[in-house]
Amino acid sequence: MGRGLLLLGLALGLMTGCASRSARTTPEPRDAPSGKDSGTYLGEGLASFYGPGLHGRKTASGERFDQEALTAAHRTARFGTCMRVVNMENGRSVKVRVNDRGPFKQGRIIDVSQGAARKLGMLEKGLARVRLYRCADAAVSVFSMPLEPLPG
């Protein structure tokens, strides 16, 4: 009896070890970073966009929000940080500059402007699963230039 259980345990272990893994359902981004120019991986999650209702209002950084500019709201990134946002559903990507705080909805990682959402192909759905990378060229990018103060 003990030997039968041992053989059964070994057989189950072998079958489990030989089982195939499920196929990846999310396509890899067309322009996935590789090599030393890739930028730093910052995470992945849900992105949403904001625009028309906030256009022209002050952001947390003090600048006026332009819904067509390539900007974003992030909870912790420094203002002026350049991030590359990659839509994991279609492989499209866009570089955005962080100028606001958010998103404040549970489960979301970034809010992008309407202009950035258009480039990511997420306007119709309103949400997209994305990966975030720090721009590899951020040190020489216009995205890292200091913000101009607002008049008045």
UniProtKB/TrEMBL annotation:
Residues 45-131 form the RlpA-like protein double-psi beta-barrel domain. GO terms for biological process: cell wall organization; peptidoglycan metabolic process. Residues 20-39 are annotated as: Disordered. Residues 1-23 form the signal peptide. It is found in: Cell membrane. It comes from the Bacteria. It is a lipid-anchor. Gene3D superfamilies: RlpA-like domain (2.40.40.10). Keywords: Cell membrane, Cell wall biogenesis/degradation, Lipoprotein, Lyase, Membrane, Palmitate, Signal. CDD domains: DPBB_RlpA-like. Pfam families: DPBB_1. It is an enzyme of class 4 (lyase). SUPFAM superfamilies: Barwin-like endoglucanases (SSF50685). InterPro entries: RlpA, RlpA-like_DPBB, RlpA-like_sf, RplA. The keyword Chaperone does not apply. Its main location: membrane. One of its GO terms (cellular component) is plasma membrane. PANTHER family: ENDOLYTIC PEPTIDOGLYCAN TRANSGLYCOSYLASE RLPA. HAMAP family: RlpA. Belongs to the RlpA family. Lytic transglycosylase with a strong preference for naked glycan strands that lack stem peptides. This is Probable endolytic peptidoglycan transglycosylase RlpA. The gene is rlpA.
